[in-house]
Description:
By secondary structure, this protein is of the alpha/beta class. The protein contains 13 helices and 11 strands. The strands form 3 sheets. Strands 1, 4, 5, 6, 9, 10 and 11 form a 7-stranded parallel beta sheet that branches. Strands 2-3 form a two-stranded antiparallel ribbon. A two-stranded antiparallel sheet has the order 7-8. α1 (23-31) crosses α9 (285-296), α4 runs antiparallel to α11 and α5 crosses α10 (299-309). The protein starts with 22 loop residues before the first helix and ends in a 32-residue tail after the last helix.
Amino acid sequence: MGQEASTPVDESTPPQTLNARTIDAVAAYINEGRAKKIVLMVSLNTGGLYPNGNGVQLIVVETGAGISTSAGIPDFRSPDTGLYANLAKLDLPYPQAVFDISYFRSNPLPFYTLAHELYPGQYKPTISHCFIRLLSDKGLLLKLFTQNIDCLERAAGIPDDKIVEAHGSFARQRCIDCQIEFSNDLMKQAIHRREVPRCTQGDCEGLVKPDIVFFGETLPEEFHRNRELPGSADLAIVMGTSLTVQPFASLPGSCSKGVPRLLINSERVGGLGFRPDDVLLLGNCDEGVRKLASALGWEAELEALFKVHNPEESLKEPSDEDEKSHPNTLDEEIAKITKEVDDSLRISDQHAAFVTENLSLPGRTSSQSSASTVSNDETAVQNPPILEMRDSDAGQHGDRKTNN
């Protein structure tokens, strides 16, 4: 496992593996067959080695919410437009309560009102998702580690065994009492009707919840089985994440010394940029992916795949009009969600008092409240779930800084 330097690498320091710290050098490294194990830090799986004409190439990719916002999915943490900022206006004891397992047990309605707007099937894969699919199709993807819960990686056609959903997702659900899996069809029906699903096993009737990691729950075993996998990668790609949520944030540091690490993000995060072979492509995620695809000579393939999922759109560069219209679209969507939650979920003074008493929340800030539901053990999620992609901005329609 590699060690991080304490300061950013000096520009005069030559790379050890790449011929330069540029996107063209990363593309050449891949095209020459030297990237034998590619890991994306968004979401990955262990699956072994995948033969390629040039030998074995394995890439690990890590992604965050920044790659999904261009699909129209609002992020959680943007100060003014994130869902938490809007949920704070409601009668929840604290905004993050919508993802708190203790609060869910007493009042699941806020989560299911939100789930109605975010449930898979309403959004389409972005350019970034399609690029990861291309890596998989070419036998280059070792694993995709994702913090996203929106299932857009699956919608893009990335195989299930290539994905590690560090914070879970809407892909499966189960009873929180008996732990028996719940029918996908029944789940879709309940969410469509804005109803709270209940277990159908015998007399259980326990609450059903998607396999999304809430405050107070441990990360999936799948993550822990695969978390050392970046150590065997030949290239790591990190996209759309602030790398502030542990233990996910530690994944890039697991890459071996001399392994190139490419960051496609709105800003430098974590320890990236501290090693001689770190390449930083700062800015919009989708635009960064386009640049990498162009350097690789994969533009036509990427466009064809994107059009399969988005037949009404093209890979055009964002226009000034797009830049202006996208924030309005997000604001309208968030306002809609906020209004529906507000209309449906007014919590009584009596219930608020119950929550305050049972969760010991008086005088706490949101961050203090969330900390109270999480153990010091890093196996517990230390931040709420992230909708795949808005840590860095991945929008086709413009950059909006987020705090994941």
